[in-house]
Amino acid sequence: MQNSLLDALPPADLARFAQHIVQVELDRGRLLYDPGDQIDHIYFPHDGVISLMTLMENGQAIESTTIGPEGALGLMAAVAPRQSLSRAIVQTPLRAARISAERLHEAWERSATLRHLVDRHTEALYGHAIQSVACNALHSVEARFCRWLLTCHDRISTDTVALTQEFLADMLGVQRTTVTAVARSLQAKGVIRYRRGVVDIIDRAGLQALTCECYGVIRDTYQRLLGPAAGGLNGRGERWINGQ
To answer: What is the value of pTM for the model shown?
Structure first.
């Protein structure tokens, strides 16, 4: 899997900062930024998922959006110094290209293509976030769980998602007992296999039939703003934007 934003850049533009890119592999649960942290590095995932979490004063959290091979974490820091608004945490084992915000800003100043790409990515991420707000308020936990599994599945090269009950509960903004009940229900319907902390996706088409409209809306937003290759190949020979 490759990163669609980097792939979209003409070779001459990519060459402006390619020598400063470092390839990294990060474990699940790795904290990248907390609210208020200075964004000093930008991450372009190749395979894996980063979650952006909105935190409450009482310690509760809920996922607002995810970033995978279709996008980048902290990309607005290429425009000007930025502080993180969310907690950014590695949701699945991650392979990514990392570059300092300062180095990418230098390339941003000299590349109109990169500037345009940053603007479109920001709009796509905003569209993802506001659709998630509506989804969290209006749709059932089961439908949201299916959307989350599909979105995660699109961004990784395996059919197995290893996550703790606590992490899943934070993703969905529900109690852990609710996560267990919904996972067992989906298992009974034959679309997943659920073990404590591990979800095996065994019927993707079944998950799509059970999810809400938000999965397609978010997918289409990325396609419209970032082009047909947004999301790249998901390791099963399918393009993320086709939702197959």
So the answer is: 0.88
Rounded CA separation 143/212 (Å): 5
In the chain, the amino acid numbered 7 is D
Q: How far apart are CA 153 and CA 109, in angstroms?
A: 35
What angle do the packed helices 214-226 and 112-138 form, to 10 degrees?
170
Could you write out the DSSP letters of every residue in 37-91?
Answer: -B--EEEEEEES-EEEEEE-TTS-EEEEEEE-TTS-BSGGGGTS--B-SSEEEE-
- Terminal Cα distance for the chain, rounded: 16
pLDDT in tens, 60-78: 788 888 999 999 999 999 9
- Angle 100-35-108 from CA coordinates, rounded to 5°: 30
- Give the residue from 159, 119, 137 showing the smallest Cα distance to 64: 137
Rounded to whole angstroms, how far apart are CA atoms 155 and 164? 19
> Distance between CA 164 and CA 10 in Å, rounded?
40
